[in-house]
Amino acid sequence: MSFTNAPVTRTLVVGLVGASIAASLFDIKHYFYISIGTHILRYHQLWRVLAYQLCYLNSSEVLFGAMALYNMRTIEQRWGSRKYASFILVTALFTSMVPPLILTAFLRPLSFGVLDFLPAGPTPIIFAILAQYHAMIPHMYKYKVALATGPPTGQDSATLTFSDKSTRYMMAGQLAMSQFPGSLLGAVVGWLVGYAWRNEALPGVLTRWRVPGWVVGMRGQKTNAEFENMRRRLESEGASTGTASGIQQQQAGPTEGNNRRRTMGQQLIDEVRGAF
């Protein structure tokens, strides 16, 4: 229960909590949500597209978002921090642009301006990670919850079946429905982007791209020349050791060779004979 082998997840959780607290302390919450008609169409504040996923604006969303990121850290532990960080950045690029674009070009005109709000928070990124979690991590066990208070009457009794992964889905579902319908739009887009990334439906350049190793704290790898020098040095040391062992074995007399091949029982008998 830690961030072992998950430095990117630790950065995301700490950054999310810290940014959300800072937005509240400095009273700048109004900079992180998007009203299409006001912010985009009227004042052309396009920078909000890049800023709206940086933090949540209420404590319950911060709690569920941080817990969801923490519980899905197994994706980073399986992929490695470099691939996971690359996935997060590519996902953030798509989820920053696609929901506002859909809201501006389709949903707002079709709803006659009713659907105009896109809430703050990295809900699309969390759902992109959730798509990987759903596909990669198997459930460990399942359990049933009875809907009736009486004893079960058979297989047709009213029950709901859950797994150990259900709590992860419930936390993500809470985020998707917290500021309906804008939050649901972000969740759907995030899931689709994550699914497309996994099935290589996105441009290959983006799915194969990786951040530099130093971004996730990876040390510089040794060059091929250094590995070659190390291999040659080890081979030379092994050859010299093997030659010396062979010379010593040839110099050893037959008596010493016989002594080396004696069993433990023979050595004990010889010790007893020497005592008398």
UniProtKB/TrEMBL annotation:
Where are the coiled-coil regions?
none
Q: Which domain of life is it from?
A: Eukaryota
Protein keywords: Membrane, Transmembrane, Transmembrane helix
Matching InterPro entries: Peptidase_S54_rhomboid_dom (IPR022764), Rhomboid-like_sf (IPR035952)
Q: Where is this region: Disordered?
A: 235-262
Polar residues bias (residue ranges): 238-257
Record-annotated Peptidase S54 rhomboid domain positions: 44-196
PANTHER family in the record: RHOMBOID-RELATED PROTEIN, UBIQUITIN-ASSOCIATED DOMAIN-CONTAINING PROTEIN 2
Protein name (database record): Peptidase S54 rhomboid domain-containing protein
- Organism equals Podospora bellae-mahoneyi
